[in-house]
């Protein structure tokens, strides 16, 4: 006997129905609706919501084993509803209907899901509560994410959309930024160093000075997020050279090509880092603070100076001095999650170093804000207005995960494992405030650490179970 389970979720959005519908019909919408803790790789996607279109996705199953989810659009009433079903995936059956209901100035999205679990009685016995909880978490995250995106879109409701060229789009930040900008209505292109595999991609080879200036024609904004990972490997002499060259070569090439154009892009946005300030103890730092000492501050200064040609050509140039961007899919938080979930987490070193963080959603929204605000230029700290010390971060993360978080990771162990980079990346810190960003009018959606961690991990204090 087949027992079908049902789940319903309504999301109220303060935006016209057509605006909300158009958001859902964009290529980046699926990525934006995927909960931040879910790792779902799209292998192929349909161009729109028309019936018959299929999306093929890959997700972690057990360790290195990957599973596939194939979803097919089945029904469509333009501007009012669409539906899809699971052709292949972890459920026995899955049907999902999305309805868009106009209610005054609001739009109500009515999500209705019917699903069957595999393995019959055993699947229902052991899997129904888990499935119910995960579906509730997923739709709660979808609601929060959609409302956040609609709020960000309406901030620039009357401003013309931009044609944006992104460098480093496959990295942690870029893979979040591209679908976000797409859903905001911008046209997004991407420079890649391999054979292009998508219609938005364009080839370049900065190591050999190869960049077709046609790729910059009719571009409004260039966003550079590329570069060899600073904290990914031990700092050997060779690795340091790669860190420097990968930034200097690519930023300089873009800046020089743009500066030589008759009609260059309006704005050049270059990723940077709060490592510019070095280890400053408890000193409160803003964009007017002096550069620190050491390899990392010197590298960041060089990184920012690589854009001088664009600045000299009167192209509005912005440097994103990013803090620790919080995402469970990678970066610092991604590396910490496993030991914390196992109850083996705790402060790094003595825990007294400052931890200047920012949520991924606020980070990518800040990039759009700076891009769309004509009088924003120069260096901007992309950090939460509420930095914490590392010991406090460990305590809050443990509370959110409901795990103990008192086992320290000694500094000498980190120095053995990571070598020279352990001190500036892990054992030192900066108390950095986003002074210029706040003064420019940017509003943080998740300025506090605990609320941000609960959102990105789906660990809210109260979760209503579906009926």
Describe the structure.
- By secondary structure, the chain is of the alpha/beta class.
- It has two domains: 5-155, Alpha-D-Glucose-1,6-Bisphosphate, Chain A, domain 4, CATH 3.30.530; 163-457, NAD(P)-binding Rossmann-like Domain (Rossmann fold, 3-Layer(aba) Sandwich).
- It contains 14 helices and 20 strands.
- It has helices at 17-24, 29-33, 120-155, 172-183, 237-259, 295-305, 308-312, 331-341, 360-372, 390-401, 411-418, 422-427, 435-439, 449-457, and strands spanning 5-13, 41-44, 54-62, 65-77, 81-88, 93-103, 106-116, 163-167, 187-192, 201-203, 221-224, 267-273, 284-285, 316-322, 324-326, 354-355, 357-359, 378-382, 388-389, 431-432.
- A hairpin with a 2-residue loop joins strand 6 (93-103) and strand 7.
- Helix 10 packs across helix 14 (449-457).
- The model is unreliable at 463-467 (pLDDT under 50).
Helix/sheet category: alpha/beta
Q: What is the CATH top level name of the largest domain? A: Alpha Beta
Count of discrete structural domains: 2
Large-scale geometry: globular
CATH topology of the largest domain: Rossmann fold
Number of strands: 20
**Which CATH-level-2 architecture of the largest domain?**
3-Layer(aba) Sandwich
* Distance between the amino and carboxyl termini: 21 Å
Total of helices: 14
Biggest sheet details: 7 strands, antiparallel
Estimate the strand proportion.
15-25%
Extract low-pLDDT stretches.
463-467
Mean pLDDT: 93
Strand order of the largest sheet: 1-7-6-5-4-3-2
Report the radius of gyration as a whole number of Å. Answer: 23 Å
Range of helix content = 25-40%
């Amino acid at each position: 006997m087949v027992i079908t389970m049902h789940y319903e979720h309504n999301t109220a959005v303060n935006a016209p129905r057509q605006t909300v519908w158009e958001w859902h019909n964009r290529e980046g919408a699926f990525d934006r609706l995927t909960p931040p803790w879910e790792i779902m790789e799209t292998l192929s996607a349909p161009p729109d919501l028309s019936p018959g279109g299929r999306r093929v996705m890959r997700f972690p199953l057990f360790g290195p084993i990957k599973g596939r989810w194939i979803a097919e659009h089945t029904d469509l009433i333009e501007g009012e509803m669409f539906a899809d079903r699971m052709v292949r995936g972890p459920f026995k059956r899955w049907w999902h209907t999305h309805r868009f209901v106009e209610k005054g100035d609001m739009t109500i999205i009515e999500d209705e899901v019917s699903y069957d679990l595999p393995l019959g009685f055993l699947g229902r016995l052991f899997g129904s509560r888990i499935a119910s909880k995960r579906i509730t978490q997923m739709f709660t995250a979808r609601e929060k994410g959609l409302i956040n995106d609609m709020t960000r879109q309406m901030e620039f409701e009357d401003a013309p959309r931009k044609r944006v060229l992104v460098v480093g789009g496959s990295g942690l930040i870029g893979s979040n930024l591209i679908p976000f900008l797409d859903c905001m209505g911008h046209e997004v292109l991407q420079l890649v160093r391999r054979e292009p595999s998508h219609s938005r991609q364009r080839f370049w080879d900065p190591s050999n000075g190869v960049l077709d200036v046609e790729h910059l024609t009719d571009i409004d904004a260039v966003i550079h997020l590329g570069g060899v990972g600073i904290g990914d490997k031990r700092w050997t002499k060779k690795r340091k050279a790669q860190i420097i060259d990968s930034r200097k070569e690519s930023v300089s090439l873009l800046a020089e090509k743009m500066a030589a154009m008759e009609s260059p892009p309006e704005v050049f946005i270059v990723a940077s880092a709060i490592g510019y300030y070095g280890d400053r103890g408890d000193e409160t730092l803003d964009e007017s603070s002096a550069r620190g000492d050491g390899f990392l501050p010197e590298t960041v200064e060089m990184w920012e100076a690589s854009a001088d040609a664009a600045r000299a050509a009167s192209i509005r140039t912005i440097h994103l001095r990013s803090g620790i961007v919080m995402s469970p899919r990678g970066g610092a938080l991604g590396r910490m999650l496993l030991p914390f979930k196992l109850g083996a987490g705790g402060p790094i070193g003595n825990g007294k170093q400052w931890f200047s963080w920012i949520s991924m959603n606020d980070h990518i929204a800040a990039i759009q804000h700076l891009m769309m605000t004509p009088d924003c230029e120069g260096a901007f700290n992309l950090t939460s207005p509420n930095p914490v010390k590392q010991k406090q971060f460990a305590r809050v993360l443990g509370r959110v995960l409901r795990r103990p978080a008192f086992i320290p990771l000694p500094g000498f162990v980190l120095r053995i494992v990571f070598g020279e980079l352990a001190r500036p990346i892990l054992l030192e810190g900066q108390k950095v405030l986003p002074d210029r960003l706040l003064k420019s009018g940017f509003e943080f959606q998740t300025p506090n650490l605990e609320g941000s961690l609960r959102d990105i991990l789906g660990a809210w204090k109260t979760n209503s179970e579906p009926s």
